[in-house]
């Protein structure tokens, strides 16, 4: 018997026995609801046995039998009444717990947070995707469903770019883009903000000015998907239908994944360039630090822009070197991974700067806890098969949080075992043949490419072509080679321009005589500082596909 807790007052479990009741009472349960009909299994105790054992423990037992796979609305309402009137905590059980948690979810109706319900259930091992249409019907029995030819989830770099690329090919296409945000951020610029090169305002613009005018902007959050019925479910259980769906919702920064971090961010010397409001604090700390210990961390992969954790470190060290204080500052880089950078060709150039700045490299060290007031950080250290904990002090701590797909993505049936949207890495179409109408790009998907804006720039035209191919019934799709770019800012004025695809294959955009990406160069710096921002705002987001040409496999 394993009790699974949904909230402070409700638990579910598989079949219990009379002998389990004492242990259930110890856990504080006051009411038990049995949702399994007597006689369903040869080894199943009947309800009378459980009632007799429960009476001895002062526990009330209710009997609401449900045939497997046949939960009715009437039974959900009966469960709701039992739930409301019962003493809490309450335990409901059936053979596996599935009927019980389904009854609970249906009994909550429109009052529940559908996204959180699906995610919590999935975390406990229950897939409630099948109840989504019923919850919608409960919440909006008379509502009509809006419908668009293409629905795009997310208006970040990937979402706006793919919308613009679609319109550049078919100007009359009926497109809706879903995103609740008012502000769009040029996130690659935050490293430069943290290095005192860009102002934060340079990286932000109003969303309404960037979404193409011909695209319907639906300023809501997504709660769930109903792919069998080709619907996206918005907050408030409002359905939106599509012929083709493009998911590019980005990822979620899990700040709570490190104990104590949220309480100290933006103060006590703890900062991160991964947030718009914190990047200026990074530069403030760098300017004010004249001696002491500076820590820079990198979480488990995958993360948004794998080079960003060390870019912050190199720019900081460069400033300290130019201010003649580097000799008094100890710099430690703590990387959860085992290598400095995943593509070996770029490591020699980076190691030269590691030596120049006197950086201590600590691999297989994962930040797990921070105490800002005491200025201490704890790391889990992996050595072979063993793990240990070590602690160290700091004067400045630049943190990169662990990252994952958004909750409504992880709660869906569209993801792989790690919670990322599951796609064919070549076509970026969903990997499940049941969902040929679904495509994805950007940080949310599981293709093994770098999660960077440069990757989205290459992916957007490819997805646009493939969506249109799907809509006209063709199975000839353009292929993505895994291209991603990471301008590794090693000092103010020089960058190692890493460009690579699947398997670490080097994919330089320029001839080596013009720009050698394996060596730090002034040319790459000019590209990052002066050329890439206009390419982003005025090219990529407007459907101008510079340096991109979608290719079919036969090309």
TrEMBL record:
Source organism superkingdom: Bacteria
Every FAD/NAD(P)-binding domain range: 148-268
GO molecular function, one term: sulfide:quinone oxidoreductase activity
Domain annotation Beta-lactamase hydrolase-like protein phosphatase-like: ranges: 3-109
Cofactor: FAD
Record keywords, A-Z: FAD, Flavoprotein, Oxidoreductase, Quinone, Transit peptide
Entry-linked CDD domains: PTP-bact
PANTHER family referenced in this protein's UniProt entry, alphabetically: SULFIDE:QUINONE OXIDOREDUCTASE, SULFIDE:QUINONE OXIDOREDUCTASE, MITOCHONDRIAL
Pfam families to which the protein is assigned, alphabetical: BLH_phosphatase, Pyr_redox_2
Entry-linked SUPFAM superfamilies: (Phosphotyrosine protein) phosphatases II, FAD/NAD(P)-binding domain
Protein name: TIGR01244 family protein
Protein's GO biological process: sulfide oxidation, using sulfide:quinone oxidoreductase
């Amino acid at each position: 018997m394993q009790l699974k807790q949904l909230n402070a007052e409700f638990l579910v479990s598989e079949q219990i026995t009379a002998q389990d009741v004492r242990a259930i009472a110890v856990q504080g349960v006051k009411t038990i609801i049995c949702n399994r009909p007597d006689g369903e299994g040869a080894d199943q105790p009947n309800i009378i046995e459980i009632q007799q054992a429960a009476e001895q423990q002062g526990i009330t037992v209710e009997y609401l039998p449900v045939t497997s796979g046949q939960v009715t609305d009437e039974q959900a309402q009966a469960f709701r009444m039992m739930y409301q009137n019962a003493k809490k905590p309450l335990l409901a059980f059936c053979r596996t717990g599935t009927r019980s948690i389904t009854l609970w979810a249906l009994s909550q109706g429109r009052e529940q947070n559908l996204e959180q319900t699906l995610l919590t259930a999935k975390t406990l091992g229950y897939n409630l995707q099948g109840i989504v249409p019923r919850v919608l019907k409960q919440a909006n029995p008379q509502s009509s469903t809006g419908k668009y030819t293409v629905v795009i989830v997310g208006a970040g770099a990937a979402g706006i770019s793919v919308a613009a690329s679609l319109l550049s090919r078919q100007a009359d296409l009926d497109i809706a883009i879903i995103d609740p945000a008012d502000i769009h951020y040029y996130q690659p610029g935050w490293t430069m903000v943290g290095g005192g090169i860009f102002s934060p305002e340079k990286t932000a613009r109003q969303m309404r000015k960037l979404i193409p005018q011909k695209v319907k902007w639906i300023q809501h959050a997504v709660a769930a998907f109903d792919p069998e019925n080709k619907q996206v479910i918005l907050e408030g259980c409002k359905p939106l239908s599509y012929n083709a769906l493009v998911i590019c919702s980005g990822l979620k920064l899990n700040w709570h994944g490190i104990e104590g971090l949220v309480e100290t961010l933006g103060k006590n010397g703890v900062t991160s360039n991964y947030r718009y409001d914190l990047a200026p604090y990074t530069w403030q700390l760098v300017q004010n630090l004249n001696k002491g210990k500076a820590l820079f961390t990198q979480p488990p992969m995958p993360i948004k822009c794998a080079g960003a954790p060390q870019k912050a470190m190199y720019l900081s060290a460069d400033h300290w070197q130019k201010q003649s204080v580097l000799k008094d500052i100890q710099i430690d880089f703590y990387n959860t991974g085992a290598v400095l950078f995943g593509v070996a060709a770029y490591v020699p150039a980076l190691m030269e700067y590691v030596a120049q700045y006197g950086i201590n490299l600590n691999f297989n060290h994962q930040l797990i806890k921070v105490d800002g007031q005491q200025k201490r950080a704890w790391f889990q250290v992996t050595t072979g098969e063993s793990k240990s904990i070590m602690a160290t002090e700091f004067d400045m701590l630049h943190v990169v949080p662990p990252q994952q797909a958004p909750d409504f993505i992880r709660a869906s049936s569209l993801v792989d075992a790690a919670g990322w949207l599951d796609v064919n890495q070549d076509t970026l179409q969903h990997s499940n043949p049941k969902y040929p109408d679904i495509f994805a790009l950007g940080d949310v998907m599981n293709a093994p490419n770098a999660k960077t804006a440069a990757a989205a720039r290459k992916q957007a035209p490819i997805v646009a072509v493939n969506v249109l191919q799907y809509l006209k019934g063709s199975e000839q799709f353009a292929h993505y080679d895994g291209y991603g770019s990471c301008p590794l800012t090693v000092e103010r004025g020089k960058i190692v321009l890493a460009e690579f695809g699947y398997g670490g294959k080097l994919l330089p955009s320029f001839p080596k005589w013009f720009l050698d990406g394996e060596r730090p160069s002034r040319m790459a710096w000019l590209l990052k500082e002066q050329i890439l921002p206009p390419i982003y705002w005025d090219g990529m987001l407007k459907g101008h596909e510079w340096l991109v040409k979608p290719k079919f496999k036969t090309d």
